Amino acid sequence: MMTPWIEILVTVPAAAIDLVTSELVLLGSAGVTVEERALDTFIPPDPNELPEGEQQLKAYFECDDTASLLGEVDALMQRLAPFYPDWRTVSAQAVEVGAQDWAQGWKQHFSAVRIGHHLVVRPSWEEFAAQEDDIVVVLDPGMAFGTGTHGTTRLCLEAVAEAFDSAEPPRRVLDVGTGSGILAIAAAALGAERVLACDIEEQALLTSRENCEVNHVEQTVELTGAPLEELDVGFDLILANILAEENVRLADPLIERLAPGALLVLSGILQEKEGFVRQAFDGRFAQPPQITHREEWSCLVYRR
User: Fold this and answer.
1) What pLDDT sits at residue 146?
2) Phi-psi sector, 261: left (phi>0), alpha (psi -120 to 50), beta
3) Which residues, other chains included, contact 23 with Cβ-Cβ below 8 Å and sequence gap of 6+?
4) pLDDT given at position 106
C-alpha cells in the first residue's frame, strides 16, 4: 500500500515565511507553497480570512502518521512564535491528498521569470523559448524563498543582474544565507569567476549543491557551512538575502569582506524595518543606499 501524501496548512507572519519554510523542509516536507492574503481588493470581512500581514503555508509530506506529524509541526510553531510578537499562533491543519494532486498543484504556482535584460529563471518542467542572449537558470522550488518568485529573491536577482550589466561586472561574489542557491547560481551564470555561498542549514547546502549541478556551475560556486567571520575578504559583490535582524547582527563581518568599490546587497527586509537596517549601515558608507521595493519588502544596495 502506498504511503499517503498529507497537506499541512499553517498560518504565519510574512516575516517568518523563510524560517518556517526551512524548518518544514527539515521536518521532511517535499515542497512548500505560499498562499497570500489578497490585499488589493475590498471585500466584506470573512471570519475565515487570514489576518492582515499573515500568510498561509502549504507543506506536503509523504506520511502515514498524521497525528504525529501535526504534533511535530505544532511544536515547531510554538518554538518559533516567541520570536515574532505579531504571530497569532494557530494549530496546523492536515488534509490527505493524492501524490498527483499535490505535484500538479505545486507546479501551478511557478513559471519562468525574466530578470533584467538577459536573466531568466524557470522550473525544469516548463518549456521556455529563450532569446539568443538569454541566460537561463533552471531551478525547481524546494523552498518557498529562493525560487525567483518571492519578493526578496526577485529584488536581489534584479540587483545581481544590474551589477553584471555594469562596465565593471563583479568577479568575486559572496552569497550569505544562500538557501536554494539561486543568487549564487545566477551570479555564476552571468559571468562571475568565483562565487562563495554559505548557509548554516545543512539541507540548504544540499539543495544548493544539487541546483548548482543542474545548472553546470558547480566548478564556479563553492559551498560552505562556515561562519561568515571565518570566510575570505575582498569580494566585489556581497549578497545577504536574510532577515533584517541578521543583516544588522552581521554588519561588521559583511562590510569587512567588501573590496574597495564593491557592492553590498541587503534584502529579506520588511519595509517597516528598513530604517532599523539603515541605522546600522548608513554611517559606514560615503553614500546612502540605492533602495528598491517589491510588495512589502525592501532591498538596499550600498557601494563601498
Assistant:
1) 46
2) left
3) 76, 80
4) 59
Q: Give the 3-state secondary structure of 196-254.
A: EEECCCHHHHHHHHHHHHHCCCCCCEEEECCCHHHCCCCEEEEEEECCHHHHHHCHHHH
Nearest-10 Cα torsion for 101, 106, 108, 109 = 150
Q: What is the torsional sign of CA 43, 150, 229, 289? A: negative
CB–CB of 173/229 below 8 Å? no
Q: Which helix (H) or strand (E) holds 18?
A: helix 17-26
Please, which residues bridge with residue 34 across strands? 57
Q: How many CB atoms lie within 10 A of CB 239?
A: 28
> What sign does the dihedral 253-139-190-208 (CA atoms) show?
positive
**Backbone torsions φ then ψ of 202, nearest 5 degrees:** -60, -40
Going by the DSSP 8-state scheme, the letter that residue 30 receives in this structure is S
* Domains of the chain, start order: 5-107 (3.30.70.120), 152-303 (3.40.50.150)
Is the pLDDT score of 36 beyond 60?
A: no
Q: What's the CA gap between 300 and 156, in Å, rounded?
A: 9
Give CA–CA dist 238/243, Å, rounded: 15
pLDDT at 89 over 80: no
In this prediction, residues 62-66 reach a mean pLDDT of 85
Residue at grid coordinates 500568510: 55
The rounded radius of gyration (Å) of the Cα atoms in the chain is 19
User: Residue 144: pLDDT above 60?
Assistant: no
Residue 13 above 60 pLDDT? yes
